Amino acid sequence: MKKKNDGLDDCDRCGEMILVENFVIDSEGNEVSEASKMTNLTGVRTETNLPNQSEVVLCQDLNGRFDGDGSAPVCDYTCHNDGHSGEVSQLSAIVSDGISGLNADPAAITKNAKRENDMTLEDMYNARYNFDEDDDDSDWEPSEKQTEVLKWFCVNCTMVNVEDVSNCEICGEHRESGILRHGFFASPYLPVEDVNQEELPVTENSEDSCKQSFLSSSTAVGFDERMLLHAEVVMKSHPHPERPDRLRAIAASLATAGIFPGKCYPIPAREITKEELQMVHSVENIEAVDISRRMLASYFTPDTYANEHSACAARLAAGLCADLASAIYSGRVKNGFALVRPPGHHAGVKQAMGFCLHNNAAIAASAAEAAGAKKVLIVDWDVHHGNGTQEIFERSKSVLYISLHRHEDGRFYPGTGAADEVGSMGAEGYCVNIPWNRGGVGDKDYIFAFEQVVLPIALDFNPDFTIISAGFDAARGDPLGCCDVTPAGYASMTQMLSALSGGKLLVILEGGYNLRSISSSATAVIKVLLGESHVIDIDNTVPSKSGLRSVLDVLKIQMNFWPTLETNFTKLHSKWGSYAFQDTRKQSKKRRRTGVPIWWRCGRKSLLYRILSKQLRAKSCCNYSCRC
To answer: What confidence tens digit (pLDDT) does each residue in 299-340 have?
Structure first.
């Protein structure tokens, strides 16, 4: 009898012998199949003759999926070779079972053998499982089980992390951090239940301290829990950066430190009236915000959300700022801090934008003027330019607006705030923009700009009342600002401005999206308002090259309106002019070669922040249209 090898004799991947089918031609000319299992004991692949296309063996995995498209066979099962035995695939068992009835009926065996010789392996599989041969499987595809990757969002910076890590890979905060309970005093590396209570500041008895504050405190704080109800209803790809936890973290820090409640005077909250809003906003803006009360969720711009509580929160924030300004200017309190949200400095005459609904700083300035102030200074150190505040006062000579912000030739949100934007309609010089041309700007550049530009102009202006639009998104670690200002830097700037207006100073919270950065910075500022002195070494403040160029550009423009700046410009240009404007091509080449700007300096976590910077550039900073 003649024998013919009609099957694969070893696995394509591991070389283990699987199944050999030998067809035997009997005396009547019929083919009879017999099967035998063989194992490659040596673990060495042997050469085999590939079968014809009609004889291709289709291998099946444990989920019953096929990987056969009429090309080459693929083995999806697992072969085990321990040197003594071999494990035969599920398909081998199927084929063996199909041959086990050879002794039943010789005629049937002959018929089946001929039929199987003409069938494809998919036909054989369908026949075994009684699939309808008439079914159209032309659109059939293997079903792949989707493996869901579990994620969690960092409470501190909102960045996404995978489930199996306990600390944020960007900022290092523990996923169960106690920052919302103890503020920045809580350890970033431990869960809330592991916080050592002995390491926290000792809080005074709140009842006794509040009685004392009503009698003798000179610092007022405006806060109302109803502002926490302003929140995005439907989360996008990750939590919105302007979220209620911003106020919770600051309030927790102040409470843990015994500052508020404790050492500060609380201002009762009220919703501002429509008449007060109309001093700075158009009816269009007011009605657009008010109508959001009737909607569960709405958006003024793709990044500026509202819910049914947002209009109330915005009016409470504006009302607190107005009342604080009146109380400070009238002398009922010396200074104050408005712990409010939503922020306001992007809100213009007509439009709400950039997370902002009503312009709190502009409303406070209007309230101060109504209380009798003739000249109001607004210093905006938020990392984004306060385009709304500038628009409201760009034709006014009674309000001087000074902003320090990232600009980068208009590429950084909102794109306004170039150095040559100085005001209009007879108020030229009453808008002073100090635009940074890169990220990573730190304390030295800010303090240098204060010394050379902000304070000389402010002293010349001699304001009756001073407002700080205090965004803390230029702080170290902020995911949107990507700058490097520390709590000490903010405290220094606050102390310098406290010398103006007889100390009549109102600080209004704007941006800031890293909870640890915003809470520690706000606490440092309030300590200065309470009278804690901060040593400022101005004489040894050396700016970066880019910061020096920005300051010189501003001085060159603004000295046309403030002659006192000409002396500063002449001195700086003669001392550092050649250094500031020398060729920087080598620096640009290094940036392109590394893919990370060389200015990125963030202390001991610099590698993490480099990773963050790449992620932000890849994702356009965040999934909100205004950030880039």
So the answer is: 999 999 999 999 999 999 999 999 999 999 999 999 999 999
Listed residue (255, 347, 244, 246) closest to 301, CA to CA? 347
End-to-end CA distance of the chain: 80
Per-residue DSSP letters for 423-451?
Answer: --TT-TTSEEEEEESSS--BHHHHHHHII
Q: Are 511 and 464 in contact (CB under 8 A)?
A: no
CB 323 within 8 A of CB 270: yes
Tokens 């050649």, located at residue:
578
CA pair distance 358, 352, nearest whole angstrom: 7
Low-confidence residues of the chain, pLDDT below 70?
A: 1-147, 194-200, 202-217, 538-539, 580-628
DSSP 8-state secondary structure symbol assigned to residue 454: I
**Extended strands (E) in 114-201:** 151-153, 160-162
Which residues have CB under 8 Å from 411's CB, separation 6+? 628
Query: Looking at the DSSP assignment, which residues form a beta bridge with residue 546?
Result: none
Which pair of tokens denotes residue 212?
């004392």
As given in the structure block, the two tokens for residue 553 are 């550009």
Among 440, 531, 424, 515, which Cα is nearest to 485's?
A: 440
Residues identified as active-site: 346
pLDDT in tens, 100-118: 443 445 555 444 544 444 5
* DSSP 3-state of 22: strand
**Which distant-in-sequence residues (6+ apart) come within 8 Å of 406 by Cβ?**
383, 384, 412, 435, 436, 438, 439, 441, 474, 481, 483
